[in-house]
From TrEMBL:
InterPro entries: Aminoglycoside_PTrfase, Kinase-like_dom_sf. The lineage of its organism: Bacteria, Bacillati, Bacillota, Erysipelotrichia, Erysipelotrichales. The chain crosses the membrane at residues 236-257. The keyword ATP-binding does not apply. This is Aminoglycoside phosphotransferase (APT) family kinase protein. Residues 11-234 form the Aminoglycoside phosphotransferase domain. It comes from the Bacteria. It holds the Pfam family APH. SUPFAM superfamilies: Protein kinase-like (PK-like). Keywords: Kinase, Membrane, Transferase, Transmembrane, Transmembrane helix.
Amino acid sequence: MNLNSKSISKIEKIEKGWSLDEKYYVEDEHLGKLLLRISEHTSYERKQQEFTLMKLVGLQDVRMSTPLEFWKEEDKLSALYTWCDGDELGEVVSDFSESLQYKLGYIAGDYLYKIHSIPINKRLDWKQLYGRKAKKKIEMYRMYDIPFEGAEDFIGYIEKNFDLLEHRDTSFLHGDYHVGNMIVSSDNNLSIIDFDRFDYGDPWEDFNRIVWSAQRSPAFACGQIHGYFKQEPPELFFQLLAFYMAVNAIGAIPWAVAFGDVQVLMKQAHDVLMWYDHMNTIIPSWYQKIEDFQ
């Protein structure tokens, strides 16, 4: 397969998102609608791995931006994918009925379970690896000296619960799984995009971005959890979800000072704090049981 400039009828740069890749929407007379991602050659090994893993995801019956071709040219890497027609789910999910929000969340949860089922030859000391990461985020928060009422509630919960990280399984992770990286078509089919933050670790850590989904649609967030477990989750899941969301909230604040929107992420941290009653409960206030949606 070759992307020939002579057969390209349209190409537009995509400015949305926080990825370091350059992204382009392409229309080709022979290949149809495509996504072209261009990255630095220094990331060759990781980008090749991302492309290969995405092919494996596609074999799991997950609707997605399917990888087509990967190549190196001079000092750039290029990867070509199918285009997912539709709207970013985060922008439209609140327009849908609660039952459709829940249904789409359930599908997203089922997809995530399939992503985590891909066999990998890795075994991590998760307590050591993620524990070090969590401690570093706490250090960064304190180093930046950013006032956030309730920060010590997050930190206290994290520091008391490092033992939750013991004996966790290792799986392939999407790394940024939320409604902003999902596309919904006009006939309500869901597709997953943007695997460039993929990682390996405790599969339940992939729920740490559910905060973005729950802010827009609690029904979707509940559906995602139910679609993943197909039953009520164990208590350990909720304990770890609270842990990962606390780490994410603390870590996002100094990150936002350097790279992102401080007010958005401060608001998000505040929401997490309220959902967990200042970390006095392990079940977020938006969560509803499966029976509540039947």
